[in-house]
Records
---
Amino acid sequence: MWAMRKPFWFGRWQPLILLVFLLQGLSTSSQQVGPNLLIHYWQSHWITCPGAAPHDFSVCYFRKALSLPSAPEHFVVHVSADNRYQLFVNGTRVARGPSRGDLDHWRFETIDLAPQLRTGTNVLAAVVWNFADSAPLAQFSQQSGFVLQGDTSAESAINTNHSWRALLDPSQSVINTSDEHIEGYYAAGPGERVDGSRYPWGWQASDYDNSSWKPAAQLGTAGPRGIQDTHSRWMLVADTLPPQEETLQRLARVVRSEGVTPAPGFTAGGAPVTIPPNSDASLLFDQGFETTTYPELEVSGGQDARVRVTYAEALVDSKGQKGNRNQIEGKAIQGLHDEFLPDGGSHRTFEPLWWRAYRYLQVDVHTGAAPLTLEDVRGYFTAYPFKSEAKFNSDDPVLQKIWEVGWRTARLCAHETYMDCPYYEQLQYAGDTRIQALISLYVAGDDRLVKNAIELLGDSQTPEGLTQSRYPSSLPQYIPPFSLYWVGMMHDLWWYRGESEFLRPWLPNMREVLAWYRSRVTSSSLLGRLPWWPFVDWAEEFRDGDPPQESNGQSSILTLQFAMGLREAADLESAFGDAEQAKQDRALADKLSSTVYRTCWDATRALLA
């Protein structure tokens, strides 16, 4: 299928569908990095909060004042953190990050702060958190840390060191997930709890008094990957992705309420509701479709109250079954949740540090002696900023709906990496990612996240030759066929985009994958039994996704997958000038394929056994 210039479905569906793909070339980096910063030590240090345990949960705040004689035309900085950060300039958030990688390829973002800077005193502020043992499986970590480096000497005054002020936040904690809240395999991040009475409200504003904060504790000097020695474990590489989209997304409707009756205009943000003292109230919102957002909860008053926000893809019945996701009668919400304990102040806004996935969102309030006014509940949709450059027309409205649902799904599963699912795992599996990458190339014409995926999966390769099945992942997992899909991703990028400069350095890694397979071809010219998890599909006949095999392997489908990988690799070898290697790859692919047909074909059923 991948070797055809014309999509395989074109002739069959042409009478019904007109599909026009408008592929556009996109630059791979939104900002340039000063060349010295890619080959020398930085002048900045990694910093942390004094008293913060390096490997425990923590939320740290950092601030630095900057005096400027005039507003600059450009003020470029490079920033990163472990686990993650948000950066503010004069109270305005300008960045979130870093994009996920591993310690040997730790991303940093490049940002021009000039639009937020002004003549006189300016304040840079950052929040940095470490979810520690509760972190998502996709999150690597060395220890809590933050780094910010000016691009040139003109920006050097803001380089991170002990001149930055730091505060260890006492108000925040994690809510670990359990089977009581989420059934099945869950690998994403925790819920969050914020005690408003201990939170440093206004910490990011330029007029906040941080005189009681301590000087930041210095860690090692920052530096890029590839220099002679490193003084810190993070080997920094430039992030090539654009900022994630953030767009206001109002909740669609309230579908159930208890203890309070919201006005019709509440979801639009113009009709606050008040929960009386010593009472309970609950509001269930239906977005109408699944989404990935940073939810915001705005309240006034309510000292000693407790507010819980729960997120779910669907409601469940008394047996824990989802059923029809549009039905709410007799069903309850169950899933990841956050908690906010108001301090009684006005217009307090709670937003979790990481985005949430949901269709249904429920707000449960228990008040103490003071009433609580729920000013607003809103969200900011976030995802990789794909734009649909494809047009789809059909005389069948069902197909139009399928297109819309498919594109929404593709967007929800694409952030700083591709993701198998936005709610439960948020992991980049090569098998899922190859399909997602093809959708990106076809519909958006944007190859930046595709390249990022190829790099990340390639970075996971071990000396024996296999890439990990999913990456980034702090827990290694190996599915041998997924290494072949990684080869296929390179083939797809070459087929649709060219990209020889990007792909050529990965050819040795590709050959190592094929060498791992070559060593496991038996005298029968079929593959022997593969170690690790030889997953193919969740078919009923496949136990745990593994195809039936003899005791010594001899699987038809696994052998054919290797043949597919060889043919795709041969195309790349031919394109990049190694005709002899291409010839060898194709010869082995032909031998494997003919052996499968000769030994596994069941003529009576017209199927391969």
---
Amino acid sequence: MPRTIAPLAAVAAGLAVLLSLFDSGTLAFGDHGTELYTPDRLEWAALHLQAVAGQNAITSPLLATFAPDSEQSTIRCVLYYAADYDPAAVSANKEWIQRAFDAYKASPGGWGWLKLKFVEVPTRDRWPQG
């Protein structure tokens, strides 16, 4: 699936599940715990970066996820990869993610306050293939 279509497909699938829950009566507005929630700017930034620059283990031997960090104004990018994964490839992925982040930060909308922090998590086992 082309890289630009994958995030849209994920959002569409999520909306379909949410709508089916409302349609089936499992969720209803006004039920405790279903109040409307508006993400803050940091959460929106993490969501957008995940859609644009996140990597999954299906298409890559490296998994990259974005989430708000406990530090205000910081996005945490967690990189999961097999311990035997080429360190040069990890560095190349980090550089690509940093460039995508820098472009996002420079985009209109006042994202200049954002910071990025990488966390690397090599696993002990080989990454499962297919």
---
Amino acid sequence: MAVAGVDAATATAQAWATACFASNISKAYVYSDYVGVRVRKINSLPETKSTVVVPAGLSWNNVGVAFSPWSPDGLLVQSDTADAYRKVSFASGTGTFSFGATPLAYTHGRPQLPSPPLMLERGALRGRVLVGELDSVRQLQLESNGSITDVSKTPVSGTGSGQIIGAIGVSP
């Protein structure tokens, strides 16, 4: 994955991605302005590994990526000053990823300090993505046609700091 003549930041990101991909487990990692991507073989598409530089203006605090179980398209979650969900698209002809220049259309309002996404990969809710936000849990659906739907936003009970989401998890 290393390319001769690249700047130090790119070389660091490439070394980081190579180390991540050595585990052969995860599908995406986020490092500064870089997203390292591994998409497992899906139907007739080959496994893909690449390091993607998020375009300028979209590189604010990328916290995670979730990929559709039906295609190599996915969701990029940005937090802090960006607070956005963006579509990640894969061009099989060139083997490259691109990021939506504009955030998704939100049915349930703009995200507030989203955390890394958790995707359900099996069962009736396959492709459902859960994201903890400041005081709620957002559900997004990675659809089989490649689109992303803002399904719901469930507020948590409590007041003050007792209402802040720290982390969420999913167990079978």
---
Amino acid sequence: MKAHRYQKLLGLLEQLPAVLTVLVAALAVAISQLMTVDPNTLLSLILAVVALLATSELIARCRQQRRIDESTQKALYLLQAQAGGQLSAEIFFQKKGASSFETLAEEATEIYVVGATLMALTNSYRKILINRLQAGVSVKLAIMTPDPSAVQAASERNGDHRLDSWAMHFNTTRFNIEFMRQNLRDQGKLETRVFPYPPTFQIWMFDPDTPHGNIVVEIYPHLAVETEYSPVFSLKADRDGVWYEYFKKQFEVTWANAENWI
């Protein structure tokens, strides 16, 4: 969390010279238009703008060099992993984001997801899911039951005992699913189920039974571990063999033991 905040602060500081450049340039123009300005004062303002432009360019080059260094380091990790048979966690784990879901969903004919409440997913990707459903794609969503026993177990695992927040998550997911159904002609393309226990992971599957299938797995934290991101990794049908089948089976077993929902 602290590292993330530091990176965010660093990003804001990197933008500061560019902002100051615009402000000083605007000030110089305004002063020259509104009043008679001493040439030395105007020259000082011009020199300040030039200095800030030079600083912005230097920061931009440093940022670009840092990105090159990071990419080079990751490439070295990958080469070392290939040579030694081990893969760095920096390469294996990733940050889950909208771009990965959008990219994988836009070509898929089957989208299957299992998770705790799926509130964030249905909020973020509701429009994408509606578009894919309207295109004839099959979507399956499975979450844990909102019954008190499952919610209590999930709360104890996460260290979050605010049961009202869980209720809000379930209600939001229900609203999103009902909204999706209102926009569908073929209701059978969207299936939803609930299972009676809190899951330890969230799984996205895209065309899982095809040679080009993809699976994304997020491991849920225990007792609210302080981190900006949970561990996420991707599996491909044509690359990851046994482990692809393992997590595919995890979804299938969960789905088979779940009850129809809304």
